[in-house]
Every structure is written in structure tokens, then in C-alpha cells.
């Protein structure tokens, strides 16, 4: 007999099937629970709830393992590039030379955005956070490509929507930055590769030639690969949930960008640098801030530490820490906050509070230091995360569509007033 779980309610026994993944992860399938018993399950923050079956990313938080489509993150970060990893995530296999050339060429040919996009951009006040602009402009792609709203797109039409989004997001991201500093935007140069093109749009001036530094391109490829997917995190679950209502790829990803913006999620990379700056301005006493983080009466948390699923070293943090050292050395940058970060990490890793709670540095702890060295301003850090996460969001949205998943609609346990009669205003 296949394995099942027994649930006993009001003296009656119910068998719930066990589902097993390819990495032997086990789940109790409770999809028939309410129908059979009238009960639902309650799991605030979804700490124990699998929302879907997915074949894209595997992670083991206890062992610190992360694989995209079976390939270890360490190998991809070392040997692949961002566009190849995007193809892998979205289409499930490593591309052949021809497939990769075709995918890259298509992305290059779609980098230009409609000139009306600039008018929308001009309407944002200079105080706008680039994440808000990014989310709004990605959503506005539905206006330029209304056919993307069709929930019954053919595979070719869906592929075109995917290519457009992959291509245009870097133009939109770089333009939101240029707009925020009052500089003219740069048009994409399609002879450049994905990362070089983005750097050119970010940093070139109409008045000067811009040489793309290969050290920077390499580091950017690595960072984007490390952020490219992370299974059912907050923003990805948002993308799948919004998409499950048959919303378009662009509106679903726009919602994911808003979720990513939160400081407990992608916004943490900006918060880490702000925290390190604060420690530096305060005299550099990392112990003091460790104590603040441990104090339950103090809302301060050590940003870039802890993770919902990693109860071991985040494998991405290990790679990023080394990359931070390499990039700063190669570029001759001496950033005092790198030393503060290392001191803080060492102090936390030896402190019983962090050890007992299994709080380790996460992907965001060192990424901001690299972005800073690359000349990327602090409020663009989370935009960089979004650029990296895009192929993951796309792959997850596509998988959800192809698997014809039903609309996502959690239930609740109601804790409000029971029925009562309306009271007219003069009697309240
Ligand atoms: N500093 C101090 N204490 C912490 C921290 C931290 N960064 N993170 C967790 N704790 C404590 C928390 O107070 C709790 O203690 P206690 O058991 O005594 O009440 C315990 O550790 C468990 O924390 P939790 O909040 O229940 O854990 P969670 O899984 O709900 O939260 C988290 C995970 C990432 C939101 C949290 O660790 C955090 O707020 N970290 C700082 C923000 C951050 O770096 N976020 C980026 C996450 S990685 C990139 C991404 O996914 O976007």
C-alpha cells in the first residue's frame, strides 16, 4: 500500500496521501481535507505549506543546497552567464550553441522601448524610488502589447512576451536611474551583451565614451545568476498567485516587483548598506549593533541575516562574499564598510543568540557592497535583484500556466464578530 498520513478528527480516521518529490521531500496532500471533514489547515506565513509542485529550483535549507533545474548554483555562477541561466530556468534545459545564440539575439533585438515610455517616465517626480517606477513601467507594457493580456496565448506568443520582458526590463531599469539623476537616457546598443548593454545604459554619458570593464561584467553576471530563482519565495509566490487569476505576464511580474521591494525580502540589500553606514557613522562598534539586534524591545534587526528556509549558510552568500573580495581587489576599491560587514558577520556567527536561531548571512549581506563598488547607487540595489530574479519569475509563471493550475485562493479562520443587527447612527 502506498504511504499515507492518518488524521483523526472527532473520533473518525481519514487517510491523506503522501506526495514525494524527486529529492525525497515529502508532503501530506490535504486537498480533500475540507471536503471530507469540514476542517481546513492553518499555517500563518506558509511555513509548512507547499503551494505547488515545481520542477524549476531545488533548495535544501538545512544542508545549504541550491540547484536550478538540477545544476548546482556554484557551477552555474562559476561557468555560465546570466542569459544562459535565464534560458535554463525558463525552458528547462541548458541551451545548445544555436539555441543560446537565437535566444540572445532575440533579446538584443527587443531592447528598445516605445518612446511613449519616456513620457510616462517623465511624469514621475525625482523623489520616486526606482522600484516603484520599475513596477509601474513593467505593468504599462500591457498597454503597448495588449495581446499579452490574452490568457490563451499560443506558445509562440508567450515566447514573444517573455523575450520582450527580458529585453526591455534592463532598458526600463537603467532609464529609471538616469531619470532620477536628471540625466538623458541612453538607448541600448545591441552589439553589446546583456550585462554590458545594461552597464552602458546606466553609466554612459552622451558627452563621453564609455568603456565597459570586463571585471564589472563578470561580477554582474554572477550576481544576476545568484538571484535568478529561489523557488516559492514571497515575490515568486506573488507572481504565481496573480498569474493564477489569468493576469498577464507583465502585470504578474509587476506585482512580484512590488513584493520584492519590501525590506524583509529584496529590499534587504539596500537596508544592509544603510545599516553598515549607520554603524560606521556611529563609530564602527559592531558589538553594540549585535546587542541591539538581540534586544527584543528594540525593533532593530541585523539586516542581511537570517532566512526563512536556510538554517545553514546561504550558499549564495558564500559565493558573494568571495566575489566582493575579488571585485574590490580588482577594482582597487577600499570600502571601510566591507570590514564592518566582516566584523559583524564574525561577531554574529560566534554569538549564542544567532547560533541557536541558526541565523547566517543571506544573499543580501554582501551583494550591496559589490553593487557599491560597481558604482550602482543604493536605491537601485533592489532593482538589480529584480533584474536577476526576472527569469525565475517568468519560469514560475510559465510553469503555473502550462500546468493549468487553478486560481490561488487561500481560506481563513474567521475571528471577527458573530452576526449582530445594524444600529442606526443616533443610537451608537
Ligand atoms: N536579526 C535579529 N534577530 C533575528 C533576525 C535578524 N536579522 N532574523 C530572525 N531573528 C530572530 C527573530 O527575532 C526570532 O527570534 P525569537 O525566536 O526569539 O522570536 C527568530 O530569529 C526567528 O525569526 P523569524 O522572524 O521567526 O524568522 P522568519 O523565517 O519568519 O524570517 C527573515 C526570516 C528573513 C524575514 C528574518 O530572518 C529577517 O527579518 N532578516 C532580516 C531581513 C533580511 O535580511 N531579509 C532578506 C532575506 S534573504 C533575500 C530574500 O529572500 O529576499
UniProtKB/TrEMBL annotation:
Positions of transmembrane segments: none
The keyword Transferase belongs to this UniProt entry's keyword annotation: yes
Catalysed reactions, semicolon-separated: oxaloacetate + acetyl-CoA + H2O = citrate + CoA + H(+)
GO molecular function (one): citrate synthase activity
Pathway the protein contributes to: Carbohydrate metabolism; tricarboxylic acid cycle; isocitrate from oxaloacetate: step 1/2
GO biological process entries: tricarboxylic acid cycle
Keyword Kinase: no
A Pfam entry, by short name: Citrate_synt
Active site: 307, 364
PROSITE patterns: CITRATE_SYNTHASE (PS00480)
Keywords, in A-Z order: Transferase, Tricarboxylic acid cycle
GO CC field: cytoplasm
Family according to the record: Belongs to the citrate synthase family.
Protein's recorded name: Citrate synthase
Organism: Pontibacter akesuensis
